Structures are given as structure tokens and as C-alpha cells.
Amino acid sequence: MEALALDKPYLSRSLEETERLAADFFGMINPDGLAALYGPLGGGKTAFVRGLAKAAGVDADDVTSPTFTLINEYHGGRTPIYHFDLYRLKSPAEFYGLGADDYLNREGIILIEWADKAADRIPADRYDIRFEIIDDNSRQLIFSRVNT
Asked: What is the pTM of this model?
């Protein structure tokens, strides 16, 4: 694993490269850290979560998009991972209706897809990861650190 530079674009040309970037990111994030994931549908957000979970020792087959359940929990690795998908959120206020405040107080890594849907509710001490589709196989990822 290599250290990722912040605010630098990384080009991924495959799902495997996206998963490798996620494994590198796992080496950076604290075991109780939070990352907000931004990007379009099909941008690679769930593939990224899968790669991070694999790096944490979670069975990658357990990682799916929680679009209908909104939150998936992955245990059995070095740290719990809580995977939020806010795509179906109708308002930012619904974020806490999910029990998000309970998750924010737990030990474990929190990954929030579609974080823009609850931007004013997500703690400011976090990483932001932006995904951009370049073509059918390529994605650009930019990692940033946000602090208060």
C-alpha cells in the first residue's frame, strides 16, 4: 500500500484499480474515521467500498450497495465498516431518522455514498472522495481532508 496524496487526481482504469486505491485509503483513515463519497451513478463508489472492506479483512462478497436498506454493516474484519447509501433520501433531515447519530458514535469506519444529500448533517471532520466518470472503464478520484 502506498500513501495517497490529498487533492491530487488519481486515474483508475478498472474496478481492480479502484479497489487498490481503496486499500491504500484504508491505510490512511482512522479506525473510527468517516469518508463522504460524491459522484454520479456508476462512478465507482460501491467498488471503492468493496476494496476498502477487503483491505479491512471483510469478505468482499458481503459488500453490496445498500440503496434499499440505506445502511449496511460489515463486521469480521479489523474494524467494523458502516456503509450508508443516501441516494433515496428525500431531505437532509432524514439522515438522523436513519439512526445516523448512533452510528456516528460507534467505533468503526463510516462510508457515506451520496453524501451531498445530507451535506449539512455529516460531521465536518472527515475525508471527501470525489468520483468522476472519464469513460466506460475509467474513473478519476480525488481525496480531500475536511476538518473543523
From this structure: 0.91
